[in-house]
Amino acid sequence: MPEIVTSPLLLGIVAVLAYLLGSVPFGMVMARAFGLGDLRAIGSGNIGATNVLRTGNKPAAFLTVVLDAGKGAIAVLIARALVAEDAAQLAGLSAFVGHLFPVFLGFRGGKGVATFLGTLTALAWPVGLAACATWLFIALTTRYSSLSALVAAATSTLWMVFLHQGQLIILGVVLTILIYLRHWPNLRRLKAGTEPKIGKG
Fold this sequence. Notes:
The protein is mostly helical. The chain has helices at 8-22, 26-33, 49-53, 58-82, 85-100, 113-123, 125-142, 145-162, 169-182, 184-192. The longest helix has 25 residues, at 58-82.
């Protein structure tokens, strides 16, 4: 955990602004921009890139990944540049929570995988790249997006230890818990053998 050097008031402002940025539902924005309809009425009803991909529109899905990852990364980088490292970690957490529970959608948001990976990459790029590589490896070998996310999240704190980023461990544990809570239905489907694979309905 980084040293707390920022005033509570400024940390509160950072948290609110980062949360609002994280609340922007880029999956729905891309779905509408590409004429795909209401994303909540498609496939799983999730607002993330995996569900955008179920529409068959790969460019829209790619842009959703980039933008969802980018909002976590941008929140971290701006807070780090303008405030301090404690604010950067709080900004990353707040943007992630904003994606999961967006005020603009009645607090019903996405699973947070892209935002999780973007946040980690901005906080410590070696950890972020290791987590992305873990996600990609599991996705290529199993074709399960949810399983890839769960493994990437579970191993992220191990990467933090291995890559000497101990100041991120508390945040990493919190983010991982939130990932698992949001993927609880996926865990049950994986156990039952009914979880759809990447690119399938």
